[in-house]
Design brief:
- The complex is a heterodimer of chains A (1134) and B (162).
- Helices cover 54% and strands 6% of the residues of chain A.
- Chain A is mostly helical and 1134 residues long.
- Among the domains of chain A are: 101 residues, no CATH class; 106 residues, Leucine-rich Repeat Variant (Alpha Horseshoe), CATH 1.25.10; 64 residues, Alpha Horseshoe (Leucine-rich Repeat Variant), CATH 1.25.10; 167 residues; 127 residues, Immunoglobulin-like, CATH 2.60.40.
- Chain B is α+β, with helices and mostly antiparallel strands and 162 residues long.
- Chain B has a single domain, classed as Beta-Lactamase (2-Layer Sandwich).
- Helix content of chain B is 45%, strand content 21%.
- Chain B has five helices and seven strands, in the order ββαβββαααββα.
- In chain B, the strands form two sheets. In chain B, strands 2-1-5-4-3 form a five-stranded antiparallel beta sheet, with helices on both faces. Chain B has a two-stranded antiparallel sheet with strand order 6-7.
- In chain B, helix 2 packs parallel to helix 5.
- The C terminus of chain B is likely disordered.
- The chains are: A mainly alpha (1134), B alpha+beta (162).
- Chain B: It is a peripheral membrane protein.
């Protein structure tokens, strides 16, 4: 009965496929999570079944759940199972699931290597295709290394369907395993001319992707791409190639010149907008890279701009957007050609699409000049009024400020106008950018000295009307402006018309509702104002009563701030309150205090460039990282660090500049004074420098008539001094007049000159050129804001983690013999085991190091060298040998190996390579099988023909190797060599028979091996392996297999597949050992090899020994051993 | 490179997600949500590009999307892809789906997300465009489906299959 129920539920479970799951989820909208968790339980049950159909159905459902955000990594092993199904249907499900949820840290991925290899070589092209697609999503460095060779073979597959996939996936392989790039590249290049357009397109795709990151290595392919560009009709390929050329041209201007013509032809002929657009883009890139001034290129620019105009005018928003995007690229180098389309761009500001408006704004940023800045900003101000949505309006606001402040206010000719623009911007309700406006106000007031009087007047008005800013909105954003206003009024109070009135305004009770940091500035600057008032009044001694009244005002009002909850405000207020009380006492005694009070705030503030701190050169002998005292407890120093950090980040650097100022003046006060004098003289001589005079201020203020005042915002009970919208317009007019006048003056002067020059100059009606407009105010030069001896430096902001860095490999150098095949990387190299003694090997690879002097090459060599070193280190027999070699050539360094240094070092190294390191195979408890391994096999006899062309030295070396091959015992004529061999023998601590090195060992079996060259065939190596049965059971059916590497192949009987294993021709009774020989054929002798192999065997378990396994009298064991010469890197996995 | 391909409906329900860089499930969901928020608030007649690429990778990424009836097709790409090219690719993708499902609608995508993945795999592989020719894509997809059918024919019911 119970069984029936179980059976029934299992049946139902089987029935639920993906569609049922989806339907179920849709039917359980209220308790979706609960439903899904029951589904996952069911899936877990299904995964326990043996039936692969059920399993794959479960995996399919998991893939869907993964998309909904459920972690399914727990089922990774089941996914691998489904992947390895022989049926395409299930395999595809498995690979899809794997591609969705496997990643580099998924540990079961290492189990898939063989399965994927099998699928890649499957006769069914779709098995291969599915494997490639899956692999492209989850390839890891290990997989890339192990499968690179198989994939490379697939690049020449007969079916284009496989070829194109193989070509594409190579990009991923390169990324994960950069060493494969050089060997694989020639074939990749061939594929550019593949008869199948799909394969061709894939190859173009891969090379473009590679070249984009490291363009200089691919310049040599330019002719080939040029040919493709003129012959191909596939728009996708064309677009990719044209984009690639865009990346290449900056490196090779000659290429650019060649490109212009075909590209312009394409622009004229193509009907595809995408192609047209990319052509225009690349032409722009070409023109940017070419030095300007070539007459015939102005035509190309015109063509581009004209085409872009068509795009922008198109009704398709996408084209419009892209047109603006490309236009901004032209703008950087050819601003004039873009500026003529200003109308169009301004029109785009009215577009309903925000992205287009933002693009247009970007363009405006680059389009402004001294001449049109006011006009453009005026237009933007209109948009600010219209823009309802705060985000876009905020964007506009920042853009206005960006545009005006770019490159040190380069385009601002009239700062009075700019200040009034800033003041107008404070009228924006609810903007977030109060601090931005404030910092601009501060910046301008500090750096443009001539504007201070005007700025102070404006700020005083602002302070007076503070309730308009704070009253209208609850958003505090705009209050920040008051911070700037208060500070400017205080700091430059000598320019104030009526400091008393401002002081009064700053001490109104309502101020206490402002944010704390603003109140603090209010309090501090009230003190500054107080000192100004005192000074002003003590000048006229009759008014000492007024001075006392001022003190009384402060004493009356300050207590509000003393009670403030904000510490900063409280502290400053109480400090100043006490001070004022003291002053009042002195005043009552008729003591003159003004001078002393002023001295509190004496000294000038100088702006400091944002990077100034960074640029202070470190004095010689000063180590900034060294502790001055014993390191204090961690928290303290951290606190301090944080403090300075936040200070540095503060928008208003006032406090900071206060601190730095005295030091600054101390250091070079003289220098500063000198500069100041120079500047003053300069300003005095500048006819356009408007000196701040009270009269000019009055003019502006009077000009603000009642009719100009915006009706809405202003409370009419307030004095009508609020600068409203018309203010800035007025400056525009003034500015125009000023320019007209200047122009007229200049014209008179120029007339004579012009006559001489004749037609070369533009006509009178032509637009003013940039340099004709002189700014009305000077901006302090930035250099003054830099410390002495500041070092000009470019910040290198390249990402050190960019995976593409590793692919910066020179591909033009001919491949060395050793490189023709993919190198095999060490498995899990152990970094800790480097020895400083040995170096300079790895050089075998570079048989002609002088020719291959490329940096990458060296790096590569070094890498290889390291690998070898690690290996070598563990060969104890050779240890002495190596040390000896090291002592012979002590001066050698890793990088600077040269041929001369080679012979002595390479010799012992070869010797080292012959004898194998003993890699102990760790045996997992559960494992009953043994790991088998084939050690490296580098040295074998040289194919002398291969090396004929190489230098004499190389040949010598090869000879030596040969000799060593046959056991480092024999010596022959070659001088240094024989000596070495001699030492080897003498110092060899082991008996001669111990050439057998331990290969692998576990509780059942032990393997030792020896490697010898084959005397009859120079390209073969014989590996003798002794198998020893360590357990007390019978071991049989041993199968030995070694994965072929690029360089070496296990010789198999005829008819056997490339992955079949060899049967060991004997069985092992307990305690018995026997030897078997395996032959490997070698491609190259110059590379050390690490081979990975497996030994599968069956242990006959006696009944008494393992009672648990009674039902399985025989069980196969398979252990995969990742063999490496480094003992502790050997990993064993079931 | 294409960084991710997302399909979701007007309510932000994911119908297909394919990330060519690895993110954990939570991040993936967040990316889908944020992308939906960015895309869904845009009017119909505005451009199809968005510089909201901060979600995936860096600022050089862009979102290129198309809106068909109830579904948004969003591709997140870097600067090596042509904007208009990707728009065409989305069109090819949708037309291919239309052919394979015969008048595709959202329900097809809901119930056969695996098939959609298989079709996509013939177009884009590992973030790189594999094939843009619709006929070629359909030929390969059909051939694989035929193989699948022949297998189920031989083994009749998958339940008895071992």
């Amino acid at each position: 009965m119970a069984l029936k129920i179980v059976k029934g539920s299992i049946d139902r479970m089987f029935d639920k496929n993906l569609q049922d799951l989806v339907r179920g989820i849709r039917n359980h909208k209220e308790d979706e999570a609960k439903y899904i968790s029951t589904c996952i339980d069911e899936i877990k049950q299904e995964l326990k079944q043996d039936n692969i159909a059920v399993k794959s159905n479960a995996v399919c459902k998991l893939t869907y759940l993964q998309m909904l955000g459920y972690d399914v990594s727990w089922a990774a092993f089941n996914i691998v199972e489904v992947m390895s199904s022989s049926k395409f249907t299930y395999k595809r499900i498995g690979y899809l699931a794997a591609s969705q949820c496997f990643h580099e840290s998924t540990d079961v991925i290492m189990l898939t290597t063989n399965q994927i290899r099998k699928d890649l070589s499957s006769p069914n092209q779709y098995d291969t295709g599915v494997a490639l697609t899956g692999l492209s999503c989850f390839v890891t460095p290990d997989l890339a290394r192990d499968l690179a060779n198989d994939i490379m073979t697939l690049m020449s597959h007969t079916k284009p369907y496989i070829r194109k996939k193989a070509v594409l996936i190579m990009y991923k392989v390169f990324l994960k395993y950069p060493e494969s790039l050089r060997p694989a590249f020639p074939r990749m290049k061939e594929k550019l001319e593949d008869p199948d357009p799909g394969v061709q397109s894939a190859a173009v795709n891969v090379i473009c992707e590679l070249a984009r990151r490291n363009p200089k290595n691919y310049l040599s392919l330019a002719p080939l791409f040029f040919k493709l560009m003129t012959s191909s009709t596939n728009n996708w390929v064309l677009i990719k190639i044209i984009k690639l050329f865009g990346a290449l041209t900056p490196l090779e201007p000659r290429l650019g010149k060649k490109l212009i013509e075909p590209l312009t032809n394409l622009i004229h002929s193509t009907s595809a907008m995408s192609l047209l657009y990319e052509c225009v883009n690349t032409v722009i890139a070409v023109l940017i890279s070419l030095s300007s001034g070539m007459p015939n290129h102005s035509a190309s620019i015109q063509l581009c701009v004209q085409k872009l105009r068509i795009l922008i005018e198109d009704s398709d928003q996408n084209l419009k957007y892209l047109g603006l995007l490309a236009m901004s690229k032209i703008l950087k180098t050819h601003p004039k050609s873009v500026q003529s389309h200003k109308d169009l761009i301004l029109q785009c500001l009215d577009d309903k699409d925000e992205s287009i408006r933002l693009r247009a704004l970007d363009l405006l940023y680059g389009m402004v000049s001294k001449k049109n800045l006011m006009e453009i900003v005026k237009k933007l101000m209109l948009h600010v009024d219209k823009a309802e949505g705060t985000t876009y309006r905020d964007e506009l606001l920042t853009k206005i400020i960006d545009i005006c402040s770019q490159s040190n206010y380069q385009y601002i000719t009239n700062f009075e106008w700019y200040i009034s623009i800033l003041v107008e911007l404070t009228r924006l309700e609810g903007t977030r950018h109060g601090h931005l406006i404030a910092s601009q106000m501060l910046d301008v007031a500090i750096r443009v000295k001539a504007i201070r009087a005007f700025a102070v007047a404006q700020m005083a008005t602002l302070l007076d009307n503070a309730h308009l800013l704070t009253g209208n909105t609850q958003h505090n954003g705009i209050c920040e402006v008051l911070y700037a206003a208060a500070w400017i009024c205080g700091e430059f109070s000598e320019h104030l018309e009526d400091p008393m009135a401002t002081l009064e305004a700053m001490l109104r009770p309502k101020v206490a509702t402002l944010p704390g940091h603003i109140q603090a500035v209010y309090v501090q600057n009230a003190a500054k104002l107080f000192s100004t008032v005192l000074r002003g009044q003590e000048g006229a001694p009759a008014d000492s009563k007024v001075a006392q009244e001022t003190s009384q005002l402060l004493i009356d009002r300050l207590p509000v701030f003393v009670q403030s909850a904000n510490l900063e405000v409280q502290e400053r207020a109480s400090c100043i309150l006490q001070l004022v009380k003291y002053i009042q006492k002195l005043q009552q005694k008729d003591v003159e205090v003004a001078e002393e009070v002023t001295a509190l705030f004496a000294g000038e503030l100088n702006p400091v460039a944002p990077k100034a701190q960074k640029k202070v050169p470190v004095p010689e002998g000063l180590d900034l990282d060294a502790w001055i005292n014993e390191p204090p407890s961690g928290s303290e120093s951290e606190d301090e660090g944080r403090k300075t950090k936040t200070k540095g980040k503060a928008v208003f650097a006032k406090e900071e500049s206060r601190h730095t100022k005295p030091r600054y003046t101390e250091v070079d006060e003289k220098e500063l004074a000198k500069r100041r004098e120079v500047r003053k003289a300069e300003q005095a001589n500048n006819p356009f420098y408007i000196k701040a005079s009270p009269s000019s201020q009055k003019v502006y203020q009077e000009a603000v008539g009642v009719e100009h005042i915006p009706v809405v915002q202003i409370d009419l009970s307030v004095p009508l001094k609020v600068p409203g919208m018309p203010m800035s317009d007025q400056y525009v007019k003034q500015e125009e007049e000023r320019r007209e006048k200047n122009k007229a003056d200049r014209k008179k002067k120029d007339k004579k000159k012009r006559r001489e020059k004749g037609r070369q100059r533009r006509g009178d009606s032509g637009p003013e050129s940039e340099e004709d407009i002189t700014p009305a105010h000077m901006v302090d030069i930035v250099t003054e804001e830099m410390p002495e001896n500041a070092l000009p430096s470019d910040d290198d902001d390249k990402d050190p983690n960019d995976p593409h860095k590793a692919l910066n490999i020179d591909l033009d150098k001919p491949l060395a013999d050793s490189e023709k095949k993919l190198p095999v990387r060490t498995h899990r190299p152990d970094e800790g085991l480097k020895s400083p003694v040995e170096d300079g090997e790895g050089l075998e690879v570079a048989s002609e190091p002088k020719k291959k002097s490329g940096k990458e090459k060296k790096d590569k060599e070094r890498k290889k060298g390291k690998e070898k070193k690690k290996k070598k280190k563990h060969k104890q027999e050779e240890g002495d040998n190596l040390i000896e070699a090291g002592s012979e050539e002590p001066a050698q360094s890793e990088v600077t190996n040269d041929v001369a240094a080679q012979p002595p070092t390479s010799t012992p190294e070869e010797a080292a390579a012959v004898a194998d390191p003993p890699p102990p195979a760790s045996s997992p408890e559960a494992a009953s099988g043994v790991a088998a391994v084939v050690p490296d096999s580098e040295p074998e006899e040289t194919k002398s023909s291969k090396h004929k062309k190489k230098k004499q030295k190389k040949e010598e070396k090869d000879k030596k190797k040969k000799k060593h091959q046959h056991h480092h015992h024999h010596s022959d004529g070659a001088g240094d060599e024989s000596v070495q061999n001699g030492t080897v023998e003498e110092e060899e601590p082991l008996p001669p028979m111990s050439n057998y090195a331990l290969l692998a060992e576990n509780s059942y079996i032990k393997m030792v091996c020896d490697i010898q060259g084959n005397l009859h065939d120079g390209s073969q190596v014989v590996v003798s392996v002794i198998f020893e049965n360590k357990c007390d059971s019978f071991i049989k059916s041993m199968e030995f297999n070694v994965m072929d590497s690029l360089n070496s192949k296990l010789q198999r009987p005829e008819g056997a597949g490339p992955h079949d294993s060899l049967t060991v021709p004997f069985q092992l009774p307990p305690g018995i050992s026997n030897e078997a020989r395996f032959i490997f054929s070698m491609q190259s002798i110059v590379m050390p090899q690490k081979l990975k192999g497996t030994l599968t065997f069956i242990v006959k378990v006696s009944w008494s020994c393992s009672p648990q396994s009674t039902h399985i009298p025989h069980y196969p064991n398979q252990i995969e051993v990742y063999l490496s010469r480094v003992p502790n890197t050997t990993g064993v996995d079931l | 490179m294409i960084k991710a391909i997302l399909i979701f409906n007007n309510h932000g329900k994911p119908r297909l997600s394919k990330f060519y860089e690895h993110y954990n499930e939570d991040t993936e969901q967040q990316i889908i949500r944020e992308t939906f928020h960015l895309v869904s608030k845009r009017d119909e007649n505005v451009c199809n590009f968005l510089e909201g690429g901060m979600l995936i990778g860096g600022s050089e990424n862009r979102l290129i999307y198309r809106h068909y009836a109830t579904l948004y097709f969003v591709f997140c790409v870097d600067s090596s892809e042509s904007e208009l090219g990707i728009l065409d690719l989305i069109q090819v993708f949708v037309e291919t789906l239309d052919k394979c499902f015969e008048n595709v609608c959202e329900l097809d995508l809901i119930f056969h997300v695996d098939k959609v993945h298989n079709i996509l795999a013939e177009m884009v592989m590992g973030g790189m465009v594999l094939e843009t020719n619709m006929n070629e894509i359909i030929i390969q997809v059909d051939a694989q489906n035929k193989m699948e059918k022949s297998e189920t024919f031989i083994f009749q019911s998958p339940r008895q299959d071992r």
